[in-house]
Automatic annotation (TrEMBL):
Record localization: Cytoplasm
Record-given protein name: Tyrosine recombinase XerC
Record lineage: Bacteria, Pseudomonadati, Pseudomonadota, Gammaproteobacteria, Alteromonadales
Subunit-level organization: Forms a cyclic heterotetrameric complex composed of two molecules of XerC and two molecules of XerD.
GO biological process, one term: cell division
Catalytic residues identified in the record: 144, 168, 236, 239, 262, 271 (o-(3'-phospho-dna)-tyrosine intermediate)
Family: Belongs to the 'phage' integrase family. XerC subfamily.
GO terms for MF: DNA binding; tyrosine-based site-specific recombinase activity
InterPro entries from the UniProt entry: CB, DNA_brk_join_enz, Integrase-like_cat_sf, Integrase_catalytic, Integrase_recombinase_N, Integrase_SAM-like_N, Recomb_XerC, Tyrosine_recombinase_XerC/XerD
Organism: Shewanella woodyi (strain ATCC 51908 / MS32)
Keywords annotated in UniProt: Cell cycle, Cell division, Chromosome partition, Cytoplasm, DNA integration, DNA recombination, DNA-binding
Ranges where the Core-binding (CB) domain occurs: 1-84
One Pfam short name: Phage_integrase
């Protein structure tokens, strides 16, 4: 009786790897997609690297995106690794295959007018003052969500307008804070002192507990809707906006890298693509020849 290795693989993913039903279903879907492209006489126990590569090429020609091809290849590699583990094949034929390189998505930022509109919060209740201080600080210093949530009052040096941040890998950095952000934090702290709290957390709830990541995300999203912005607002969008606007104004990639706490310059360089896109948009809208070309195209 022929062994159904797909079924065994499904049990392995569910029981031993404890992957979600959704993930297991996706893996099997991808495996079946490749299986249909193999010759009827080809068994997974004897499939060659060239046969898998040929199937992947066919999927590429059918228009599958690099992201989908990467998922397909990942499923094939893991299935072959499973067969190797079971001792029914001697080598993994897919181990050295690679999917087409995926384009790195550009970070989405807000333009300066949208950021200003977001920060125009008039309320003087504690929650409004706290949320305004949070958003001002995100945009002022380009903090990550985890960095901001972990801040204590003692991390702020008010006279020097600096904040001490513990970034990825436990790396500490000292960042400047803008006047608007310092003013917003001052106003929030006046309210915070009235809330019973036994610790030093900078941003807290009405009950005096440190504000959680999800709560910060939810509050930013809420303010984005209340300010009628046509985009979803989240902490990283303010960080992206900080990076993009700093780079547009200063063109100092190294300085922006230091401020963001990026270990590699290549991570910061993605904002140069964004900056170029902005310049290209301005050029298209302003240059007479670009405007003419656009008009010709529409005719």
């Amino acid at each position: 009786m022929e062994v159904n290795w797909f079924q065994h693989f499904e049990s392995y993913l569910s029981a031993e790897r404890q992957l979600s039903k959704h993930t297991v279903r996706n893996y099997l879907f991808e495996l079946n997609r490749v299986d249909q492209l193999l010759d009827d006489s080809t068994s997974w126990l004897s499939v060659s690297r060239e046969q898998i590569q040929s199937a992947m090429s066919q999927l590429h020609r059918r228009g599958l995106s690099p992201r989908s091809l990467s998922l397909t290849l990942s499923a094939v590699k893991q299935f072959c690794e499973f067969l190797l583990r079971e001792g029914v094949i001697q080598t993994n034929p897919a181990i050295n295959l690679s999917a087409p390189k995926q384009n790195k998505p550009l970070p989405k930022n807000m333009d300066p007018d949208s950021v200003s509109h977001l920060l125009e919060i008039d309320g003087d209740d504690p929650l409004s003052l706290r949320d305004k201080a949070i958003m001002e600080l995100f945009y002022s210093s380009g903090l990550r969500l985890a960095e901001l949530a972990a801040l204590n009052i003692s991390d702020i040096q008010f006279s020097e307008r600096l904040v001490k941040v513990l970034g990825k890998g436990g790396k500490e950095r000292i960042l400047p804070i803008g006047k608007m952000a310092i003013s917003a934090i001052d106003k929030w702290l006046a309210c915070r002192r009235l809330i019973p709290c036994e610790h030093d957390a900078l941003f807290i709830t009405n009950k005096g507990t440190r504000l959680a990541h999800r709560s910060i995300q939810a509050r930013l999203s809420k303010w984005g809707q209340e300010q009628a912005l046509n985009m979803r607002v989240h902490p990283h969008k303010l960080r992206h906006s900080f990076a993009t606007h700093m780079l547009e104004s200063s063109a100092d990639l190294r300085a922006v890298q230091e401020l963001l706490g990026h270990a590699n310059l290549s991570t910061t360089q993605i904002y140069t693509s964004l900056d170029f896109q902005h310049l290209a948009k301005v050029y298209d809208g302003a240059h007479p020849r670009a405007a003419k070309a656009k008009k010709d195209k529409s005719e």
